[in-house]
Design brief:
Blueprint: H1 4-8, H2 20-32, H3 44-51, H4 55-67, E1 71-74, E2 78-81, H5 86-105, H6 112-130, H7 134-149, H8 155-172, H9 178-182, H10 186-197, H11 201-227
Antiparallel strand pairs: 1-2
Helix pairs in contact: 2-4, 2-8, 5-8, 5-11, 6-7, 6-10, 7-8, 10-11
């Protein structure tokens, strides 16, 4: 759970003309990084002190993230990080197939900047895995898939993918063993990268589709197990 000191390190991301959108962006990133798990209550005191913002600004940021289905307001209790269900998993992976599949299909020759972004995410995930930092593996994995969506060169898609990745991180919390969730996909990320770099677009799309199908099945199965008496 992010503390006042953790959030204080995010102050450079804001400026004197800080807006609720910027604050929402900081909180969304922390959700994507796993610092705010599902059902956790967000403390106004902690966040306003940590980011050096007003309560009104924070409440507007809460409203924006509630609209994105990342937060929920519970009457007389406060604001909480949303807990997703199996229907959310299925829908999220449907959207992922649409976005990431389309992104891969646009590739003719992978631009060098995109190749660097994809490779950096894969390298970061592998380094974190070697150090046993599985939460960081999860973050790097999401950034890899953000970079895939980025191949579409669409600011609107990038914005949607940021929201999507935050929701995915909330889904991933259902797995008690984070290594079991992330480790099998490390070589598959590398394989997708190598296929894209090599210009094997159809093979990359096929590998990605299989990857997403397996991940969805794994998470749906885990949700079923978690909800069984």
């Amino acid at each position: 759970m992010a503390t006042t000191d953790d959030l204080a390190r995010d102050r450079p991301l804001l400026d004197r003309t800080s807006t609720a959108e910027r604050v929402a962006g900081v909180l969304r990133d922390r959700i994507m990084e796993g610092q705010f798990p599902p059902d956790s209550r967000l403390s106004e005191d902690t966040i306003t002190k940590g980011l050096g913002i007003s309560r009104n600004t924070l409440r507007e940021a809460f409203r924006l993230l509630t609209h994105e289905k990342l937060l929920v307001h519970k009457l007389n209790q406060g604001v909480f990080v949303r807990k997703l269900d199996v229907a959310d998993v299925v829908d999220l992976y449907h959207v992922r197939r649409v976005i990431e599949g389309a992104a891969v299909r646009t590739v003719r020759t992978l631009p060098k900047a995109d190749a660097r972004a994809l490779a950096a995410a894969v390298d970061d995930a592998e380094a974190a895995a070697a150090a046993g930092r599985w939460a960081d593996v999860g973050t790097a994995n999401l950034r890899f898939h953000q970079a895939i969506a980025g191949l579409l060169n669409s600011p609107r898609v990038d914005e949607l993918m940021r929201q999507l990745c935050a929701e995915l991180r909330l889904v991933f919390h259902v797995m008690a063993n984070q290594r079991m969730l992330y480790e099998p996909y490390l070589p598959r990320n590398r394989e997708i990268l190598d296929l894209l770099v090599g210009g094997h677009i159809a093979a990359a799309e096929k590998t990605l589709d299989s990857y997403l199908a397996d991940a969805e099945h794994q998470l749906v199965t885990e949700y079923a197990t978690a909800s069984s008496p």
